[in-house]
Design goal:
- It catalyses: gamma-L-glutamyl-(2S)-2-aminobutanoate + glycine + ATP = ophthalmate + ADP + phosphate + H(+); gamma-L-glutamyl-L-cysteine + glycine + ATP = glutathione + ADP + phosphate + H(+).
- InterPro entries: Glutathione_synthase, Glutathione_synthase_a-hlx, Glutathione_synthase_C_euk, Glutathione_synthase_N_euk, GSH-S_sub-bd_sf, GSH_synth_subst-bd, PreATP-grasp_dom_sf.
- By secondary structure, the chain is an alpha+beta fold.
- The chain has 18 helices and 22 strands.
- The longest helix has 23 residues, at 87-109.
- The radius of gyration is 23 Å and the shape is globular.
- The two termini are 29 Å apart.
- The structure holds adenosine-5'-diphosphate and magnesium ion (2 copies).
- The site of one magnesium ion (MG) has 4 residues, from strand 7.
- One magnesium ion binds at residues 155, 171-172, 488.
C-alpha cells in the first residue's frame, strides 16, 4: 500500500509511475477522495476489476483493427470513477429537456424560420445546402408522413462563472444519430461495482440508474405502432464500419423484445435495393420500412452522390424518419445561434414564458458571423480575445471546432468574405477540472485532469398537431482530459462516465 498522508497529488502521480507529466492544477477537485485516488496498489487492482466488469456488463466496442466483425471486441473507454455533478444543475438539465424537445419540433416545422436562419450558411456551406435542398424538395412535393419521431441529446458543460457561481450551459443539441444511449444504460453497474471494490459503499449507492436505451426504444416503438403495419421493419441506417455497434444493439434489442423487427442497412444497401411504391411506401430488400433511424448521415464524408439520392428517396417516403430533414436542420449550429437571439424563443412559445426562461437560462453567448455590422463586431471580439471563444463550423461528430490562436488564423483568412458565414462563434464554457483515471484500450492508466460534458436524451412522437409522447429519456456523462479542447467518445477523445450527484 502507498502511504496515504500525501500532501501533493503530483508526488503521488510520480511515485505510482502513473503519469510523470501531469501537473495537477490546485483547482482540480476529485472524483473520489484522495486516499483512494492516490492509493497506487488499489488503483492498479481496480483497473483490472474495472475492465472485467465493463466486459461482463457489455460496455463494448469493436476494435479499430476489426471494425467489421465481432470476433474480437474490447471495452468502450470509460473513467475509473464517476465524476461529481451538482444535483441542482443535473435536475435543471433534466427539467428543461421536454421544452427542448418541443422547441426542436417547432423549429423543424417552421420553414420560414429555417430558411431565414440558414440563408447565409447555405450559400457557403455545401453540406448544409444539400440538406436544405432535400428539405425544399420534400416541402414542394408535400409532406407524406404526419408522424414525427425525435430522439435527440442536449449536451451541457458546467461553467464556473467569474462570480463563483457554477451554471448549466448548453453546448449543442444533437438531433441526428445521438449516440451512447445504449452503453450508458450499462455503465452505472460498472461504476457501482468499482466503488464497492474500492470500499466506497456510500458513494456507490449514489450512482444513478439510467436507461436511455429503453427511453429511446419507447419512442421508436410508439412511432412503429402508429405507422400501423406489423410486417414493416425499423431500419437502422448505419455506417460501413460499425465500431459502436453494441451501443445500437441495446436499443435494437429493446425493439426485438417488443416483437418489432429491426434491420440494419447502409446507404449503399438503400441505393441498391431501395424503392418507393405508388403510395410512397419505402421498401428495402422487399421489406416495408416503417421507420428509418439515422445512425449515420450527419457528416459530409458519410455521403456519395448515390447516397444523397438515397437520402432524398427516404425523406420523400411514407416511412417515419428519425430525424426528418427539418429536424436534422434544426440541430445545426447556425440554428442554435439564431434561436439565441432576443425574441426568438418567445416567438416559438408565445404562451409559455416559463419554458422560454428555462431554455434561455442554459444558453451561452452565441454570435453571428453574417456579413454586416453585427458580424464585423463578432470578428473583432474574437480576434481580441480568442481564448474566450470557440469557432464552430456546421459539422458534427467532434474534432471540427476551432480554438485559441487558430481562431485568429481562420478568421483573418475569411473575415472580409462571406465564407465566414459558414461558422458561428460561441463563448467558451469553462468547467471545473476534476481528477480521474481514464481507461482506454492500449493506453497506460494515468491520472488526468478532466472536464465533463452532461448529455440529456429526449424522445418525442407527434402525429399531425398532437404531441403523443414528450419525455426525457436518460442521461450520459462524457469526460475528457483537459488537454483536449474538443472531441467526443467516437472521436477518440472523451470516455464514458456517470454523474455522482453532489
Ligand atoms: P459536435 O457536434 O462536433 O459534437 P460540439 O459543439 O459538441 O460539436 O463541440 C465538440 C466539443 O467541443 C464538445 O464536446 C466540447 O468538448 C467542446 N466544446 C464545444 N463548444 C464548447 C464551448 N462553447 N465551450 C467549451 N467547449 C466546447
Ligand atoms: Mg453534435
Ligand atoms: Mg457535441
Amino acid at each position: 500500500m502507498w502511504p496515504q498522508e500525501s500532501s501533493s497529488c503530483q508526488v503521488f502521480a510520480i511515485l505510482m509511475g502513473l503519469d510523470r507529466s501531469v501537473d495537477l492544477p490546485i483547482m482540480a477537485s476529485k472524483a473520489v477522495p484522495e486516499d483512494v485516488l492516490m492509493n497506487g496498489a488499489l488503483i492498479r487492482d481496480l483497473e483490472v476489476v474495472a475492465k472485467d466488469i465493463a466486459l461482463l456488463r457489455g460496455v463494448l466496442m469493436r476494435t479499430k483493427e476489426t471494425p467489421y466483425s465481432s470476433e474480437v471486441v474490447s471495452y468502450a473507454p470509460f473513467t475509473l470513477f464517476p465524476s461529481p455533478v451538482p444535483k441542482v444543475l443535473f435536475d435543471q438539465a433534466i427539467a428543461v429537456q421536454t421544452h427542448f424537445n418541443r422547441l426542436v419540433d417547432k423549429i423543424s416545422q417552421d420553414t420560414k424560420f429555417l430558411h431565414e436562419a440558414l440563408d447565409s450558411t447555405i450559400k457557403v456551406d455545401d453540406f448544409t445546402a444539400r440538406l436544405f435542398n432535400i428539405h425544399m424538395h420534400v416541402l414542394q412535393e408535400g409532406c407524406s408522413q404526419p408522424i414525427a419521431l425525435g430522439l435527440n441529446r442536449s449536451d451541457y458543460m458546467l461553467d464556473r462563472g467569474t462570480d463563483g457561481n457554477t451554471t448549466l450551459k448548453q453546448i449543442e443539441i444533437n438531433t441526428i444519430a445521438a449516440s451512447f444511449g445504449g452503453l450508458s444504460s450499462q455503465t452505472p453497474a460498472v461504476h457501482r461495482h468499482i466503488l464497492k471494490v474500492a470500499g466506497r459503499l456510500e458513494e456507490q449507492k449514489k450512482v444513478l440508474d439510467n436507461n436511455p436505451a429503453a427511453g429511446l426504444a419507447k419512442g421508436l416503438a410508439m412511432a412503429w405502432e402508429l405507422y400501423g403495419s406489423e410486417r414493416a421493419v425499423v431500419m437502422f441506417l448505419v455506417e460501413d464500419e460499425q465500431i459502436n455497434i453494441y451501443d445500437h444493439r441495446y436499443v435494437e434489442n429493446e425493439l426485438w423484445n417488443r416483437n418489432i423487427p429491426v434491420i440494419r442497412r447502409r446507404f449503399e444497401d438503400v441505393c441498391k435495393t431501395g424503392l418507393l411504391d405508388q403510395d410512397k411506401r419505402l421498401f428495402i430488400d422487399g421489406q416495408e420500412v416503417a421507420i428509418v433511424y439515422f445512425r449515420n448521415g450527419y457528416m459530409p464524408q458519410n455521403y456519395t452522390e448515390q447516397s444523397w439520392e438515397a437520402r432524398l428517396m427516404m425523406e420523400r417516403s411514407l416511412a417515419v424518419k428519425c430525424p426528418d430533414i427539418g429536424t436534422h436542420l434544426a440541430g445545426t449550429k447556425k440554428v442554435q445561434q439564431e434561436v439565441a437571439r432576443p425574441g426568438v424563443l418567445e416567438r416559438f412559445f408565445p404562451d409559455d414564458p416559463e419554458a422560454v426562461a428555462q431554455i434561455r437560462a442554459t444558453f451561452a453567448g452565441l454570435y453571428t458571423l453574417d456579413m454586416g455590422e453585427e458580424g464585423d463586431k463578432t470578428v473583432a471580439m474574437a480576434l481580441a480575445n480568442p481564448d474566450q471563444f470557440v469557432l464552430k463550423p456546421q459539422r458534427e461528430g467532434g474534432g471540427n471546432n476551432i480554438y485559441g490562436a487558430e481562431i485568429c488564423q481562420v478568421l483573418s483568412g475569411v473575415k472580409g468574405s462571406s465564407e465566414r458565414t459558414a461558422y458561428i462563434l460561441m463563448d467558451k464554457v469553462q468547467p471545473q477540472p476534476v481528477l480521474n483515471y481514464l481507461l482506454r484500450r492500449d493506453c497506460p492508466l494515468k491520472l488526468s485532469t478532466c472536464l465533463s460534458e452532461l448529455g440529456i436524451f429526449g424522445a418525442y412522437v407527434r402525429k399531425g398537431t398532437n404531441m403523443l409522447l414528450n419525455e426525457c429519456a436518460g442521461h450520459l456523462l462524457r469526460t475528457k482530459s483537459a488537454e483536449y479542447s474538443d472531441g467526443g467518445v467516437a472521436a477518440g477523445v472523451a470516455v464514458l462516465d456517470n454523474p455522482l450527484l453532489v
